[in-house]
Amino acid sequence: IRISMICDLCKTRKLRREFPSDTVTDTCDHAPLHCLRCVTKYVEKHQRCSQCPQEVKTSNPRYREYLETLENLFPKYTAPTATTENEPSTSLVGNETISVVMLGGDSTVVAYKPGMTIQDLKKFVQNRLGPAPLKQRLLYKEKELKTDLGTKLATLQDYAIQPFSTLHLIVVLYEINQSLDHAIFDLFWGYPSRGCDYLDASVLIYSGSALQGIVDYSSRGFIGVSHSGDVMDHKKRIGHHTISVQLKSLPSNINKLFFTLSAWNSPNISKYKNPSLRFFDAKEPNKQLCSDQMGHAAYSQAIIMCSLSKIDGIWKVFSLRTLSAGNANNYSPLQQTIGGIITQGLC
């Protein structure tokens, strides 16, 4: 699953990370639908927003941030230094490669060496995409890549990974220990630039690949799961839906919960700022255990923010950041997207 969108200006399909997470000024009253490259070129030439008449000087901090993001995404070529046999090369010219792709669309490419260890690959991925090696769950053909095989470090060759293969990366936000029973998932969003509007937080509950129930603002109960309803902070202009999960009360066959945010009135969620997630133990509400944020929600009606999945008897919170159609009035598209995630063995 790879998330992309088409820039309204250059009409080119690009990855989500190539678009700004917010408009170039706070007074722009529109979703950011032009890619970073188009916005920065337009500002440089016309000194205004590429989508509206708002003036934008080249000293504008957000414009400077866009330039820095582009520089990080597309660094200028430098001559490669010598590498060891198993160390990933940063020069890809003429090389066979493999791709590592996150569900949210972020990705990186690494030169292929059959003897490269999974440990070295995870370090490379950390440098490019951010997650620490212990937080990475790398999968190839629905099989998780372990760093060691008991007697030796595992390599790409051990998993029969071929050149130009695609590996999927799922980020483990938190691994829940046995003492934590009552977990709180706080899903929240910033108000649109004008007025107050709602997103809907829902949790879709599965046994394997079979949907067992849905908890949302109108159907707030499932054994072990409950929904807060609307909690709107007008002063801070932030809306919240909190979902409570009592792990030991869940039916024994339940092993996957998917937490989503979706738009009810709006055709997409691009006007809502920074859809986010906080996770904490109900006993210690001021002690945040993990968090995640999706800065740019693009054209989609919904985001699958994360999953709570039981793997080898341990509950883990995975960052998904997956865009989808569907909302609290029509869950079928969300079920289809989640079905694809489950089928690929991603969580």
From TrEMBL:
Coiled coil: none annotated. Gene3D superfamilies: Phosphatidylinositol 3-kinase Catalytic Subunit, Chain A, domain 1 (3.10.20.90), sav2460 like domains (2.60.60.30). Residues 96-171 form the Ubiquitin-like domain. This is Ubiquitin-like domain-containing protein. It comes from Pocillopora damicornis.
